[in-house]
Amino acid sequence: MKSRKIRRTRRRVTIGGAAVASVAAGAALLPNWSAGAAVTDDPTVDARTKATFQRLADAVLTDRTEVLVDGGQDNRKKPLTDAFSGRVRLSSGTARGEDSALSTLKQRKDKLAKLGEKYSKASTTVTLDATSVKGRKAKVAVTETTTLTYEKVRGDEPKNTGFQAHHELTFTADRHGNWQLTGIRATDEGDLAVNQPVKPDVGPVTVETADDTMPSAPKASTAYPGPANAKNFTASGLNYQAMADYAKKYWSNYNPDYPNFNGQGAGGDCTNFVSQALKAGGWKHVPGYVYDYTKWFGNADIQSDSFVGVNEWSWFAQNSKRTTSLANVYQMDIGDVLQVDFDKDGSKDHTMVVTSRTRGVPYLTYHSTNTYNRSVASIIASYPNASYYAYRT
Prior knowledge:
Layout: H1 19-28, H2 47-66, E1 88-90, H3 92-114, E2 119-134, E3 137-150, E4 160-173, E5 179-186, H4 240-250, H5 270-280, H6 305-308, H7 310-319, E6 324-326, E7 337-341, E8 350-358, E9 361-366, E10 370-375, H8 376-382, E11 387-392
Helix pairs in contact: 1-2, 4-5
């Protein structure tokens, strides 16, 4: 959730397979207006048209995913979106934008390959959540569910990684009733999906605090491999595997015992989610005033700022000595926490928890965008210019 207690003006956000069949169906499920006939009234969107909107969204997002797969796009001569023409298709501007997006993602794939990470296959499906039409514009809300299978490069990688992301597509109709996809944007609080070609949208927010005495965490190096710093899993009395198990259980199915801060301008659920995982592994409540960063507590009815806010969590974690800072992100192990400042302005934006580690590579699970077992290498390849903060719990 957004941090709420800073005096200086800063921006705050927590971000906290069926493709070929879809295209074939998309070619058949077209709007039912006569070809070339001009329409004087605003076009309507019937069930067949909505289905085509969904399938075009599926094609766009599947193209993005498959370019990350080893040999994925190379196995086809052209993108899936090229199969859409006439009544429902990409606008020329959107087509150019998607070409650029695929080029960016191809570069990301190459970066990951150099770090020893590849994907052997992928599956992206899109469900239609809502459609609204006003005049000659249609807004289409969809949910993307993507799974990527890790190729066995090191030999003991997790089986796969995946995420759920939400998007809004804008379609514009011409005078003949032909619809063109003129825009697509992520609608999660920030977007940390591996196939998202642009950095998260973290807008400016002005907030205030009582003082400037908050502890400041040191930045962590992203150089691979990190120096040895083995975690002692018994000294603290915490159950780190329980933290990971909790995160894996609730990465997409939110625990009803806590509020959900994802969407509707709530600020994002990432820190709230990580705090829940830490609590499941043995972190105890420190009750008190919700705005006091030296306190930490959360349940269905009330949460301290340190339980749900990115920066407040960092202040509490350091002040309470419940964490120590790690010099390198690759030193993290199960139950450790990573935070990111995307635009390096000193205000942290996103919180994640480590749920797996193999051969010196930690894998992270988080909310907003809901994601499981994404490698730290993938995060860094997507956001190479961000600042990273690694905490041993």
